[in-house]
Each structure stands twice: as structure tokens, then as C-alpha cells.
From TrEMBL:
It comes from Ruegeria marisrubri. InterPro entries: 2C_sensor_his_kinase, HAMP_dom, HATPase_C_sf, HATPase_dom, His_kinase_dom, HisK_dim/P_dom, HisK_dim/P_sf, Sig_transdc_His_kin-like_C. This is histidine kinase. It is a multi-pass membrane protein. Residues 182-233 form the HAMP domain. Gene3D superfamilies: 1.10.287.130, Histidine kinase-like ATPase, C-terminal domain (3.30.565.10).
Length: 439
């Protein structure tokens, strides 16, 4: 479990987190091995080798101490220089480099310089410019002496090769592990895509694969999807059957009432019409968002058609704003039903409705606003529940509904992977209903 302070910096994708799980231990092991190798192996070996060379330098200087000239000093130490495989020459003060030079990747050079200057006080500068020569500059009574020797006598040859080899094989094995990990994570990604598509009202082909646990989760998802589809189908068939069976006696009642005097039949006919409307509402709720198949739809064109149909029906509706262009995978029939329900509520409890749309790369928002009394904040969660009846502040007497209008809209929004959000309209002062759908 990640710490709260590190949580904002932890990747959210499964691939990135798995990559960190693979790479982080490898990096830590490399660092630990590299530090242990540099400190314990290289440092100890280099110290021993530089101590030996420092004794050899002192031997050469002891042979030169009785010389009166530089040429005599070189001659006196000639045999020792040959035996020790060193070269010596005296320099003018201006020829001595002011500072040591070394290769940037030479890890042992600082230790060599530190040990030689500590063990041989006469050493002024130590330069290791390449892998063939090391120049040690000493201050003597006869002038500055330059000793040239093989760097391999001061430290292990190419100490960085071990680290380079470690890094190379670490990268190679990590890459192979990452490719294998991708094959293991691909079934999880396919399962997530299928679940997300089903949550948005689409059924995509999916077959379980991968490890045993992933296959078990995939089979569980398929069973769950099948049960939900059967439940929706059974609910629709049941309510459709009930609605169909009740239409026949309602039709007979209408025919019977038509035989009565108009004054006596009017109240009863109104009751029959309300029962017919209730049946239609129940059937509409039973269909929910399952009607039609998802397809690429231009939401601006769809809303324009809905507004034009509402105007022809005598409703005061306006499409005020459409931001963004593009198509979205929607069920046009379900979205039309949801928007028409919101428009119906708006003109039932108010006098006019305004519709706007905002399309971004991540979401689609369809907004319907009215100038009615609105819904208090504490009742908005209750208003989207089926068969919810609010108090008289919403002026329920102006319609014969059963509280399924907003429930149908919320069901359609959820079937598209979105939600219905209620608020107060800043423009008109009434209810603001937003259908927000993730793309």
C-alpha cells in the first residue's frame, strides 16, 4: 500500500505499476552491488596496489638523493626504473600541470590520487589521461620529476566493465520480463474493456484467457453479464405482457363508456385515459436504455431534431448552445426518450425549456433547464428514484405522472456509462438537469 504522500505520484495504469514493480528491484540491486563493489573490492585492491607503487617511488627517489645534477639522478636510478618499468625525466616548473586530469568514467582515479599524495609527500600532481600512461609529478631538490608508469599497476584494469555488464544484462532481462508481463496483463485489459463497454450499454465479444485467476474472473463476468441481460429481457417481457393484456379491457371500457351519456362518461373516461398513460409509462420504464444498438451519433444533430419535434408539438423549447464537434457512441432512441422526458418535465412544471450541449474529448454533457420551481437540494437524490413523488413544491398536481420520468433519464444515463445530475438553473432559476456521459 502506497503512502499518502506518494499516492499522487504513483502511476494509475496497470502496465506502469507493473513496470515499476519490475524495474525498481533491479535498480536497487544494481545500486547495492555497485556500491559494495566500488567500496569493498575496488577500494581495497586499489589501496594495496598504490601502496606498492608508493614504495617503488620512494625507492627511486632514495637512489637519486645523492645525485648533484638531474642527469646524474636519472643515471643512478636507471636500473631501478628499468626493473620497475618506469620512465623518469625532469621538468621545468612551467611544464608541471596545475591540476590532475582523468577520464570521467574512471572510478578508481580519485582513490589513486588520494593514496599517492598521502603516502608520498613529495607528490604534487597525479594525471591519468588515458589507459596507457599515468604521470606522477614530484617535487625534489633537483627540480620537478615526472614518473610515467602503467595505470594497471595502480588499479584494476577497466573496473567499469563489471558495472556496464551488469547494467546491460539488467536492461536485457527487464525487457524480456516486460514483454512477458504484457502477455500476462493483456487478458486483464481485455476483461476491463469488456466490462467498461457493458457498463456503457455495449456488448463486445469477449472470451476468457490468461492465467487461471484471470480466466475465473472472465467467466464470472460472462455469467454476470448473461444474468443481467436475462433479467432485463424478462422485466421487459413481463411488463410488455402486462401492458398488452390490460390494453384489451381498457379498450372495452372505452367502448362501453362511449355508449353512456357524455356527462356521465367524462369522469370515467378520464380515469381510463390515466390508466392508459400509466401503462405506457410502465412500458417505457421497462424498456429502459436497452432499446436500439449503440452507433456513432452527432449529438448536436440529434438535439436539433428533438427540439424541432418539441416545437411542432407546441412546446416552448430552444437549443441555446452546442460546444464541440464530433460523434459519440450512443443509443439514439434511448437518448431521445431521456431528453424528451426532461423537456416534458420542464414545460409541465415551468413555461419554457432551454437545451445546451458541451462535447469534450472525455465527456458529453446534455443540459436541460427550465423556469419552474425546481427541486430542493435535499430531495434531488430522492427525485431520480422510481415512483418517487415529491412534495407540492414541485407542483405535482400539474401532471398525472407516477414519478418515472427522471428515473428513466437516470437509467439511460447509467446505461451509457454516465450519470444524471440535478441542480439549480442559473439562467432560468428552475431545475437544471445534466446528462453526463463518458466518451
Amino acid at each position: 500500500m502506497s503512502l499518502p504522500l506518494l499516492k499522487p505520484y504513483v502511476p494509475r495504469s496497470l502496465y506502469a505499476r507493473a513496470a515499476i514493480i519490475l524495474i525498481l528491484p533491479v535498480v536497487v540491486v544494481l545500486l547495492v552491488v555497485a556500491v559494495a563493489f566500488l567500496q569493498r573490492h575496488l577500494e581495497d585492491v586499489t589501496t594495496q596496489m598504490t601502496r606498492t607503487v608508493s614504495r617503488e617511488i620512494k625507492l627511486v627517489m632514495s637512489e637519486m638523493k645523492d645525485a648533484e645534477t638531474q642527469e646524474e639522478a636519472i643515471a643512478l636510478a636507471g636500473s631501478e626504473l628499468d626493473a620497475l618499468q618506469m620512465k623518469a625525466r625532469f621538468l621545468n616548473p612551467g611544464e608541471v600541470p596545475p591540476a590532475a586530469t582523468r577520464r570521467w568514467y574512471d572510478f578508481t582515479a580519485p582513490m589513486v590520487v588520494a593514496n599517492l599524495t598521502r603516502l608520498v609527500p613529495e607528490v604534487q600532481v597525479v594525471s591519468i589521461p588515458d589507459s596507457r600512461n599515468t604521470m606522477v609529478y614530484l617535487e625534489t631538490d633537483l627540480g620537478f620529476l615526472e614518473l610515467t608508469l602503467d595505470p594497471r599497476r595502480l588499479s584494476p584494469a577497466a573496473p567499469h566493465q563489471l558495472i556496464v555488464t551488469m547494467v546491460f544484462f539488467a536492461v536485457l532481462m527487464t525487457s524480456i520480463s516486460f514483454l512477458y508481463m504484457r502477455n500476462q496483463l493483456r487478458p486483464i485489459t481485455r476483461l476491463a474493456d469488456a466490462a467498461q463497454a457493458f457498463g456503457r450499454g455495449r456488448v463486445v465479444p469477449y472470451s476468457p484467457g490468461g492465467a487461471i485467476e484471470v480466466r475465473a474472473a472472465g467467466n464470472a463476468f460472462l455469467d454476470m453479464r448473461a444474468r443481467i441481460e436475462r433479467q432485463i429481457e424478462q422485466r421487459t417481457l413481463m411488463l410488455s405482457g402486462v401492458s398488452h393484456d390490460l390494453r384489451t379491457p381498457l379498450t372495452r371500457l372505452k367502448l362501453g363508456l362511449s355508449m353512456l351519456p357524455e356527462e356521465e362518461a367524462a369522469p370515467l373516461l378520464q380515469d381510463v385515459n390515466e390508466m392508459q398513460e400509466l401503462l405506457d409509462t410502465f412500458l417505457e420504464f421497462s424498456r429502459g436504455a436497452s432499446e436500439g444498438t449503440p452507433e456513432a451519433v452527432d449529438p448536436a444533430e440529434l438535439l436539433q431534431q428533438i427540439v424541432e419535434d418539441a416545437r411542432r408539438a407546441g412546446r416552448e423549447v430552444a437549443l441555446t448552445q452546442c460546444e464541440g464537434n464530433g460523434k459519440v457512441m450512443l443509443r439514439p432512441t434511448a437518448i431521445r426518450r431521456a431528453v424528451e422526458n426532461l423537456i416534458g418535465n420542464a414545460v409541465r412544471y415551468g413555461t419554457r425549456a432551454e437545451i445546451s450541449m458541451a462535447l469534450t474529448p472525455r465527456t458529453l454533457r446534455i443540459r436541460v433547464e427550465d423556469d419552474g420551481p425546481g427541486i430542493p437540494p435535499e430531495q434531488r437524490n430522492e427525485a431520480v428514484k422510481p415512483f418517487a413523488r415529491l412534495d407540492p413544491a414541485r407542483n405535482q398536481n400539474r401532471g398525472s405522472g407516477v414519478g418515472l420520468g427522471l428515473a428513466i433519464v437516470a437509467d439511460v444515463a447509467r446505461a451509457h456509462g454516465g450519470a444524471l445530475r440535478l441542480g439549480k438553473s442559473e439562467q432560468l432559476g428552475g431545475l437544471r438537469a445534466d446528462i453526463v456521459i463518458a466518451r
